[in-house]
Amino acid sequence: MSAVRPNLLFGMGNPLLDISAVVDKDFLDKYSLKPNDQILAEDKHKALFDELTKKFNVEYHAGGATQNSVKIAQWMIQEPHKVGTFFGCIGKDKFGEILKKKAEEAHVDAHYYEQDEEPTGTCAACITGDNRSLVANLAAANCYKKEKHLDLEENWKLVEKAKVYYIAGFFLTVSLESILKVAKHASEKNKLFCMNLSAPFICQFFKDNLMQVMPYIDVLFGNETEATAFAKEQDFETKDIKEIAKKAQALPKVNTKRQRIVVFTQGKDETIMVLGDKIETFPVLKIDPKDIVDTNGAGDAFVGGFLSGLVQDKPLDQCVRAAHYSANVIIRRAGCTFPEKPDFK
After folding, report:
1. Quick count: other Cβ atoms within 10 Å of Cβ 297?
2. Would you say residue 144 has pLDDT above 90?
3. How many whole angstroms separate alpha carbon 322 and alpha carbon 164?
4. I need a labelling partner for 314 at 20 to 30 A (CA). Which of 9, 53, 107, 126 fits?
5. What is the DSSP track for 272-326?
6. 190 in the Ramachandran plot: left (φ > 0), alpha (ψ -120 to 50) or beta?
7. How far apart, in Å, are the Cα atoms of 109 and each of 81, 83, 103, 116, 242?
8. How many structural domains is the chain composed of?
9. CA dist 87 to 9, 16, 28, 100, Å?
10. Average model confidence (pLDDT) for the chain?
11. Contact present, 259 and 284 (Cβ < 8 Å)
């Protein structure tokens, strides 16, 4: 086990404030939302945010996929504080202040690019049963600028301090050049660059950006829905999740010193991991359906647990175990929130 120090884990993504509520099917139908999906808000969704806060009992949680994962990794590690660094763009407003406060409470070293042209981004989490439909209004998150933030000397120094990097696929819609700069640095220095397919729409509509980054990806995460969408777009001609993982693992890679690892989750079904020609499956922790409060954040928590293992140089099966533990804790609570300390050995 290597010594864990601040800024070992670097994340960059869309910092969003989650506005979360249990809704009904009529609400989903009204805005033509699928029960379990992630989409970007369009004009037709503008009224959704107002209606959600007026009609339902909403909770506000600091969100954004990458930021959630970095927080969970920090929570799993506990000490020292600020092992996780996070970059993203917010507005100079009340929601932005909440995100700053929440990052500080989670002991994450967040360095936001703050601008006043757009308000802080929000994400409506519309919950029905154990499904969640996410509608993200990126706003400020979409304004991240490489030359205004990532390229600044004091910020780039933080990037260089890290040895594990994680960026959710969602950031591919915002700043491909920022992702590529970080990914190439990781590859050149033989550090670990991790990414997530994040959502079917990323695999479908941002596949060119995704495939520009793919050669640098050391660890690829995704769930079964995303894996299937990815396979379809890549003409893999299979719906078998294990086969898709094998084909994704075999895609071209720049840093040949490391074989790509592909990790696909399947909700309550076993998690699949492929490294080289070895396929492993890991059962998830059992949970009584009545204990599931909110599945929003389960995927982010899984990644956060896995990253906490990578940062501590733990074997891959231990990383999966930590990932399953984190996800199991998070789905028992509203939003991507957690108790004071993990109970993980």
Report:
1. 30
2. yes
3. 16
4. 107
5. EEEETTEEEEEPPPP--GGG----TTHHHHHHHHHHHHHHTT--HHHHHHHHHHH
6. left
7. 8, 8, 7, 22, 36
8. 1
9. 12, 12, 32, 12
10. 95
11. no
Structure tokens at 153: 């000397």
SS3 129: coil
Q: What is the pLDDT of residues 156-211, one digit of tens each?
A: 999 999 999 999 999 999 999 999 999 999 999 999 999 999 999 999 999 999 99
| Residue 293 falls inside a structural domain | yes
Hey, what amino acid is at 27? F
Task: Report the CATH number at residue 216.
Answer: 3.40.1190.20
pLDDT band at 220; cut points 50, 70, 90: very high
Look up the pTM and report it: 0.93
Q: Which two tokens stand for residue 30?
A: 């009204």
Residue 81 domain-assigned (yes or no): yes
Interacting residues of 239 by C-beta distance below 8 A, sequence separation 6+: 228, 231
Residue-level pLDDT at 2:
60
Residues marked as catalytic:
300
> What pLDDT is recorded for position 7?
98
Q: In which domain, by residue range, is 150 found?
A: 9-16+63-119+139-331
For strands 59-63 and 16-22, give the pairing.
Answer: antiparallel
Q: Identify whether 233 is part of a domain.
A: yes
Q: What tokens does 319 get?
A: 């990383």
Q: Is residue 53 part of a domain?
A: no
